[in-house]
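Here is one chain, start to finish.
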Amino acid sequence: MVRLLLALDDNLSQAEAQITAIEDMVETADGAEAFILHVFDDNPEGASVHQVEAVRETKKRLEAAGVTVDLLESSGDPAEEILKHAKEHDVDQVCVGGRKRSPAGKALFGSVTQDVILGTNRPVLVCGSSET
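Its structure:
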């Protein structure tokens, strides 16, 4: 069984890219468990991970593909929280979203993605959005 951590923000298009990548991966796996993590930067209203549309859609689609899904939420520095949860849940792979960048910036990852890649020895899948 493969264990995955999907770090999602509020961007539904970005979540779609991550869902597609994970669906393709789990088709060949002998069972899969996904931990969907949303890190709140600032959450004074006490919002829940269940209120994030990208999380709800990802959960629904992955469960339809036969993946066992657990929802996780935290607040703080996104990269630190992603790394903490990856270790805590002993995942086989971390899946993060990439951002569309300028031509000069395409050689660089966003700061959260870069910090996650450099902060772990686990494989990190970076999925780009289909938005233009």
